[in-house]
Amino acid sequence: MPCEYCGGSGRVMQRVQIMPGFVQNIAQACSHCGGRGKHIAHICPTCRGRRVAKGVTTISVDVEGGLPEGHVLVYELEGDQQPGVVPGDVRVTLLSAPHPVFTRHGDDLHMQVRLTLREALVGFEREIPHLDGHVVELAREGVTQHGQEQRLRGEGMPKHNVPSEKGDLIVTYVVEMRKTPLTAAQQAWVRENL
């Protein structure tokens, strides 16, 4: 039904005195109908006449393999809705969750492998479970230096635009020294044999 305050126009005229002897008529939106020109006869108990009710909507987010950190997924027209207004967009920014073994740098994965002094001197074999469940086998012979890196091609994250290609896995070796001091006999053996 038409608003009784503005007569259905949605605007009301207001006289404003600018200075003595000067008056200006200003049209502004009707405060009773919100500029719509109509008044709601029966107010809805859910929205209380606002024509909008709060609610929760679930959006299914599809994250493709290899999307980079900080990538923004945009779901157009899925934002808040209001009569007479185009809904906004929902923007989802991707952040990598911390992992106890791997860290991501672009398409490459980095990890540390701890070695005993014996493994660092004579070699070792290790099996590392990867993020996708397959096992990466590490095997080295001879001396491995503390901080030495090994690059395993194609064992990193999938590349976003080329799903058949992957980044690299970069393994940094950390040699752990024993924490308890050597006995005199052990020190003598090390001096003699190393």
TrEMBL record:
Organism for this UniProt entry: Strigomonas culicis
GO terms classed as biological process: protein folding
Q: What's a Gene Ontology MF term here?
A: unfolded protein binding
UniProt keyword list? Metal-binding, Repeat, Zinc, Zinc-finger
Name under which the protein is recorded? Molecular chaperone DnaJ
Tell me if Zinc is a UniProt keyword of this record.
yes
Zinc-finger ranges (CR-type): 1-56
Domain CR-type spans what residues?
1-56
SUPFAM superfamilies, per this entry?
DnaJ/Hsp40 cysteine-rich domain, HSP40/DnaJ peptide-binding domain
